[in-house]
Fold these 2 entries.
Entry 1:
Amino acid sequence: MSRSIAIVTDSTADLPPDIQRQHGISVIPLNVHFGQETLRDGIDLTADEFMGRLAASDKLPTTSHPSVSTFEAAFRSLAETHDQILCVLISSKLSGTVQSARLAADSVAETITVEVVDSLNVAYALGFQAIRAAQLADEAIPLTEIVSILTAEMDHYHIVFFVETLEHLHRGGRIGKAAQLLGTLLQLKPLLRVEEGQVVPFERSRTRSKATAALIDFARELGDVEQVAVLYNTTPNDAHELAARLGEMLRIEDVPVLHIGPVISTHVGPRVLGVVIKEARSA
Amino acid sequence: MTGGLPSAIPVAKQLQIWNGRQLGEAFALAAASLDARHEYVNSLNVFPVPDGDTGTNMSMTMKAAVKAIPEGDQAVSEVGKHLAHGALMGARGNSGVILSQIFRGFANGIEQRDELDGQDLARALRSAQEMAYKAVMRPVEGTMLTVIRGAADRAATTAARTPSLTTVLRAAIDGAQAALDSTPQLLDILRQAGVVDAGGQGIVIVLEGLERYAHGDTTFTDDATANLGPGADMHFLDQGTDLHGEDAYGYCTNFMVFGNGFDFDHVREEMAAMGQSAVIVGDDTMLKVHIHTEHPGRVLEYATRLGSLDQIKIDNMSRQTDALVAQRAAVTTSRNLPGADGYQGTIAVVAVAAGDGLADALRSMGAATIVPGGQTMNPSTEDLLDAVNSAPANQVILLPNNKNIILAANQAAKLTDRAVRVIPTISVPHGLAALAAFNADQPLDRNAAAMTEALSGVTSLELTAAVRDVDLNGVNIACGQTIGLINNELAAAGDDIASVAMSLFAHADLGMPELVTAFAGANATDEDISALRQAVTLAFPDAEAEFPDGGQPHYLFVISVE
């Protein structure tokens, strides 16, 4: 990789290893804690292993953002092969990851320039942004310009997903305005979206098939779709079926199907299905 | 017309022309006639489900109409205007709404008239008929529409010959009665059930009440009142409010008597006097008795003197109604508090439901206001209007949750300054499905479209007990048997919950449902719930099932299948 700008994201972007390699993106793991045990997201345990443990564990795990020193070490290592570093990270309203990266950036400032971009996104919307950053860097576009492009395009990305229960989001304190959906007496599959970096209620549905239909409707109503991906954590068949339906409807051949990683799964619980969309419009 | 009835009505023998005061008194007497016979009208319900409220709804509407007429001398046009407005606000149930439109048309027909003669009456009836047909989207013959048309037609023919009020009125009654008698031929469901149209019967009773006034007859000696017995006035739980309890008070008492020779007619008369809604059939050796009474012991004691008793079944109806009364009181006091549920939005959903559990479920799905009512207690247009006007947002979505409340909801929507959309929900399951599609951040019309569309994804099933014997669609149903309804239509009957539920599931063409939500009624037992649970598991092994407490009266289960 002869590129002068290193691209860094975090493990919540759900970038598969081959994509990381293809685009030369470094991934900093967040952490999952089962009691005293700390596991690095995607390194010490895979998404599938995690779902198994989550189901078997009677206590819910907790999560933490990468330490400043983790970022520092990564930055120093990347400084040996790159002139500049661009960090695109999970929404600062959902995680302290951005904060941690900025502190690390300050402490390595004499060694290398690090730009930290708060993506205001999560999961593969963040993944799409990291890939976009890598592509721009490959075109030798200057760092400041990449940052302004990413910033301008931030609201082109949409994540809509539904959860089996709001319990996990509630316990993790990541529920925000979706709290108004709590306390329902009946079976509900709430559809949520990430808006301005926060998880907010989108629609409500009482069954999975109607919730899935609502995801498709969302994509349909957006109009011009440039990229689309499907997110899941325990229901691969549902995810692949949804990807096929979306691909056909939007005439997009490659619809990636991504397994949501342990950290996000901790907060959304099992049986999540969602779509990530990048709208096609000029910035 | 707030004065006492009927003693305050002066005799006006054979008047050929009415002034305003007389017209008002005539309608007041007609209202009293309808009140006296509303249980009979209720009993003409096609389905043997506990929602035979046509008589009650028409009577309540009629009372509201005459109550709006100011006392004193005035033009008949004024009386008509007040009558129509009172009926509009007090309209309850589809029959009440149609009656209110009949009065509206009647008022239009006597606009600018000081007095009313036979020709005015004929014109008013024609106008009433036209307005009634306009009130329903798809007019169906064999209903009260046919009956008002029968009245208008015969009145017009007669009025062409004579201006005599009594002659034209008599012709109108003959026409209405003939049309009423034809309703079973026009609507097969009536023929099967062996009844005439209930709403049409109500029209005939109203016209007869007017005639009675024209003849100066203000007493109540007709055979229908003989069935009422003492305590008929207890039906109105608190005067001036809109609660009724006629069919829902006392004990529903059923039994058979096998004797050896008694005077059937005499026994029937004596027994009928002991309660209300009496249906007593048989001969001089055998009786089948259905009666609503506060004192079932007295009735049974009397019957034991005739012979041996069998198949005794006594249900307490008062407990269910008391629960409704308490519920209404509770909700009425709290419903005017905007944001009582922390609700803040630009659109508020107002939903109708009976039962704490159903109300809570609707609230938890985002309904801001619950208007108490349902199958056996239809809220009036005014109740709905009040709820709309006190809803915590200027844009309102109204969920009637009963097919018999949709017309009143539409009326309420027309009478308010607020932007109201009525989603035609025919049951609470439909209401919940609509609410799931509600999003306060979206524009009103977009919500209305999404919520209406959501209705197609849900089927509403109900289990209840038959309130009388009937043969319908080839199904032989006995009073007290479990019956099942699919989207309000009778579909199955049997002796136990599980088999009726299985039969419903088979008939409803549900495919592979994902979610079954069965709201248990106020009198559903744990055994009932477990019986239904087994049936659901057997029929839909892959579906999720939940059994929340609905608390609804009369209906053992209200089931949403999605």
Note: The CA atoms of residues 201 and 281 of chain A lie 25 Å apart.
Entry 2:
Amino acid sequence: MKQLREAMGAWLALVVYLPLFVLIAVLSLAWAEEQGAAILIWVAVLAFVGWQFVDTLAGWSDVPTAARVVAPFALGAVVLIGWEVIVRALDVPSVILPPPSQITGTFLSNMPTLWADFVQTILKGAMSGYVVGCLLAFGVAILVDRYDFLRRGLLPVGNFMAALPIVGTAPILVMWFGFDWQSKAAVVVVMVFFPMLVNIVAGLADTSAMQRDLMRTYSASYWQTLMTLRLPAALPFVFNGLKVSATLALIGAIVAEFFGSPTVGLGFRINASLGQLALDMVWSVIVVAALAGSLLYGFLTVLERWLTFWHPSQRR
Amino acid sequence: MTSGAGNRFGRAVLPVLAVVATLLSVWYVAVVPMNVKEVLTQAEREGAVVVPPSAAERRDSGRWSLVFANSHLLGASWSMDRSRLPAPHQVARELWASTWVEETTGRRGIVRSGSLSNRSLVYHGGVTLGATVLGFVIGSVMGVLLAVGIVYNRAMDLSVMPWAIISQTIPIVALAPMIIVVLYSVGLSGLVAKAAISAYLSFFPVAVGMVKGLRSPDAMQLDLLRTYSAGKAQSFWKLRLPASVPYLFASLKIAIAASLVGAIVGELPVQRGGLGARMLGGSYYGQTEQIWAALIVAAVMAAGLVWLIGWIERRTLKAMGAQP
């Protein structure tokens, strides 16, 4: 009986809701301009059908992963189609909210500009600062680990600094290091340093007394213990810090450009396009930033899975 | 008793004081090379003999070599106006002048005009604090509501949760200037626009943390409630919600810090008061002391807000009977 109901559910999802969803989407896209305020009802119906589709698919226990993959796309489709048709039907001026189709067009026709901005802000500014900041935090973390006095002194200061709006140092660092990417890298170094430090130190403390005693019975030196036991054990914490810092690095590099930049870069492009009320360009820049952030995060996740395969959270 | 207190001082407070003192002395030393070129230009104007005599030569030579060549002329390093790096006491003086002195004796201060001076950091800090707190409250409430929806609705969990996680990996703050300008053009300005950014930034950490918290009761506890034949509402109020409180506070601390950053960045495009406006104004006009003072106010505010949430957390957990 249960199996029958599930099979019915799957049938309902695939044969009724999916075609209905596509049909409503296509019709609303085709006739958006003639609808006026009635488009809101269309979007509500679209969202309802999408929700029913995901819900019935999720109840189908034969392929639980199918719903897991399809559901985010369904929501994304509802949001994008709703955005597009509402903007077109209600004639929202594009200086307030451009439709996704226009943003896509701007994005595709301005690829070279956006690529130059990406290189300037993400590769030169954010990534160089990210690498330097993480290495610096690593060095200080080793010092903190070796000397107890530093641990008691630096850790409270580091915890305090990690919660501060460090992005406020951007105007000062831009003044010191000039308008080019070096100042953005400096902001990123300061921003990622403290979260990384706190995470690495916490990670290095994450071995049990028994494990360390074992290393002592092998008469391992400090560095041998560090390299073969404590550093691998710290990796989950390190990756946690790396992920948090990755977002911070992008934020730092973009916001620092609001305080002065050469005429290239994502933050500069946002400010300049806002001045011309070219919101489709601003949205394109945001798409670039979002892609960069997700790619970096995805890369770190893959690296983490590869390096910390032994950790319980990575086992399947 | 006394030895306990002394021990605590030696183990906890002394190292922190040592680190802070080291940082301050590094700062004082760094003032000299950072400002050396401006100091030497000023000394030359006053008639002193500077070692590479031409300004062009000085521009191309290293800061430390200038310091060692002109060590007798460097007394002004710690009292320059508009210096590249102001000394700590200069920042402290600016802080004092733009808060207490401005309000008590200034023409526009609260004592003589009855309202807070628009030149004082008290006023600008208040502007930022208002937007931060309003946005934080809105964002947190929305985040908790979304989390409840995610935990109790399977379709919502499957469709919304991945986006909530992805949204944490992208620099949302890049949206801030656009939100400000767009809301400004539809007639919403100032507090509401900044609060919208703060709310947006604090929304996702709270939602993600709260989902984790509401799911933290294990199967055994949920089964126990089922044997009591507790309904969904009862298991929410009596088990899931209390279990989520530690997670909630951990994410509230992240959210309030993010909210403050959002408010500061939101003040950059429209210069209508606030700490972000002070920082940008300072960087336009080379008023470094003003930037540093605004930065310190922002830091104190962040620390105070995080501490306040920690205090509420301790009170709440104590009232709930948690073991310290």
Note: Chain B touches chain A through 57 residues (CB under 8 Å).
